[in-house]
């Protein structure tokens, strides 16, 4: 009887020790990356189709619930298009003039970014970070900025596997970078991620005037991101008389529900 | 027994994929429901109290959650297995069902 008890205790002990060893081995730096990469490789076809189906279904439901506001938005957008068309024409003329002048000065056109196209296949369960289907084999390395087709800043590469990478969204709690107001580039601040796709613009002096609806773009100060990528729109200005600095809530310009293709900037 | 475990593994694998790729599009103010966690709690609450299915599924569910998150592997395993053990402990010691 005593022997039986001992052996069952021994058994539980053995199982626990085996489990601990199992997890320690799995967490060895290189090994854990390879294990995760393997799992991502197996599940990426399923994840990709799930992501697409989710994208379409949520679009469908949104279309139903938002018909009314969409109509209004549509009208506003049409007006905006006309305004922009007018602006566009004048800009085109300016561009032509500019090009001519540059040619005359024999200055080469500004180099555009070098990009890698990727697809999103999943999101981290707890943090604001997403999984994309290009990794070290495609030339992705850590800390490269990630943008959408519309040059909206999404985040930076935080971890690289062989065929996949994790992208830390700008709304991740660990994310922080310099930004400025689009039309008034003297106003510089720091954007902090708040988790749950929320952003906060911080460290703006009280005497600088910021207001709702103004666009925030990235600044090259700090060297994390290239200059001039769209970050979001000011949703609410938080001002208190006690503090000497003001803050603002920012609505990110990207919407996780709409994202499918992303670009990684490899050179800027 | 082995067949049951295999089914559990597949089910929790699919639940994790559903959560990471499909439910992201239906977030409410940035909150995405944790399907695996809900499944583990329900399973442990409603299974027979002598069965170990809940514990085993907590282990595999946690494992898949770990694979698809940035934490070290074992983070969710610890949380979910701990939770399963807690539920079982409470049921065995403090809850008396009239039928048994």
Counting DSSP E segments of at least 2 residues, the number of strands of chain B comes to 0
How far is the N terminus from the C terminus of chain B?
Answer: 24 Å
| Gyration radius of chain B, rounded | 15 Å
**What is the count of structural domains of chain B?**
1
Q: Provide the spatial order of strands within the biggest beta sheet of chain A.
A: 1-2-5-4-3-12
* Percent of residues in β-strands of chain A: 25-35%
- Separate helix tally of chain A: 3
Number of E strands of chain A:
12
Which stretches of chain A of 5+ consecutive residues score pLDDT under 50?
A: none
Poorly predicted residue ranges of chain B: none
Textual characterization of the structure:
The complex is a heterodimer of chains A (268) and B (100). Chain A is 38% helix and 30% strand. In chain A, a hairpin with a 6-residue loop joins strand 6 and strand 7. In chain A, the strands form two sheets. Chain A has a six-stranded antiparallel β-barrel with strand order 1-2-5-4-3-12. A six-stranded antiparallel β-barrel of chain A has the order 6-7-8-11-10-9. With 268 residues, chain A is an alpha+beta fold. The model of chain A has no long low-confidence stretch (mean pLDDT 85). Chain A is globular and about 85 Å long. Chain B has 100 residues and is an all-alpha fold. Chain B has one domain. Helix content of chain B is 68%, strand content 0%. The longest helix of chain B has 21 residues. The model of chain B has no long low-confidence stretch (mean pLDDT 86). The interface between A and B is medium-sized, with 38 and 28 residues.
